[in-house]
Amino acid sequence: MPHPGEHSAPPYNYPAGYSDPGLAPPPGFNMNYNMGPPPVMFQPSAVAPTGPPAGITPAPDAPHSMVAIGVPPGLEYLAQIDQILIHQKVELLEALIGFETNNQYEIKNSLGQKIYKAKEKNDCCTRNCCGSLRSFDMKIKDNSDREVIRLIRPFRCVSCWCPCCLQEMEVQAPPGTTVGYVKQDWHPFLPKFSIQGPNKETLMKIEGPCCACNCCGDVNFELKTNDSDKAIGRISKQWSGLLKEVFTDTDNFGIQFPLDLDVKMKAVLLGACFLIDFMFFEKVGEANQRSSVFS
Question: Exposed (0-12), middle (13-18) or buried (19+): which is 77, by Cβ within 10 Å?
Fold first, then answer.
């Protein structure tokens, strides 16, 4: 017991870096009491983390309750961005001997951070006999390897001389639930597409150039509203450099869309980008890639 007049010592000695639990937290320290659900700060995973992973730049701040309503699981991050980059991975076997393999892609945000990955699924005979017109299923997975989007492309014609059986793609998110379609519209010399909802109602349109040939430059497919010619976004085939363009089949794309666009339609635009890639920029063996709706 201390003698009278002496100050009593604190019952515990706190190590450096720890404060007395009875004191108020220092300025800027958030106790997270009664703050509601945390915002979605990064591309979601199967197990919800407690904070952004190391080295990952936080996504734009958005309350969880705002992005969760009506958003398919795994697509929460798409609600916070207005552009996507798509890079096709180089397949060594395909580059060396020309044997067509399943296409694989990395889907990134504007900072180059991978948010999804996509892989084509079909058989060897279909890939090498049907070429760029081949049917396929494409699975798009998040960083926790959970499938969040499935693209289904049936075998169709692509030439303007066959207007009754043009290209289309079904987009499901999650797999088994159709959120929209991409359908090629007949036109004598321009590549045109309709972006449709789950009931095949046209919501937006895409229009490309007469000659989709990227000779030392980007090729832009403009995204427009259904009732006007006003451009609200675009899908761009980006110039990858002379060596890659000539000797490999790898493509780079960029997609721009309004930030407040329905996240399901963002997923459909992702499907439209892959359809455009296969229609105009896919090379199989010695066959040259298409450059217009005539060929």
Answer: buried
Long-range contacts of 200-204 (CB under 8 A, 24+ apart): 202/226, 203/265, 204/232, 204/265
| Distance, CA of 6 to CA of 256 (rounded, Å) | 72
Copy the structure tokens of residue 112: 């180059």
Q: Positive or negative, the Cα torsion across 2, 8, 14, 15?
A: negative
**Which residues have C-beta within 8 Å of that of residue 101, sequence separation ≥ 6?**
91, 93, 94, 127
Q: How many CA atoms does the CB half-sphere of 29 hold within 13 Å?
A: 7
Least confident of 62-76, 184-198, 257-271: 62-76
Q: How do residues 185-227 score in pLDDT, each as one tens digit?
A: 988 888 999 999 999 999 999 999 987 665 667 899 999 999 8
Q: Name the nearest CA neighbour of 44 among 151, 170, 174, 150.
A: 174
Q: What six digits make up the tokens of 61?
A: 């701040």
Among residues 208, 159, 202, the alpha carbon closest in space to that of 183 is found at 202
Q: Where are the alpha helices (DSSP H) in the chain?
A: 64-68, 92-97, 124-130, 242-247, 263-280
* Residue 290 per-residue DSSP state: P
CB atoms within 10 A of CB 28: 5
Q: How far apart are CA 84 and CA 4, in angstroms?
A: 73
Rounded CA separation 152/164 (Å): 19
Contact at 8 Å (CB) between 111 and 131?
no
**pTM, full prediction:** 0.71
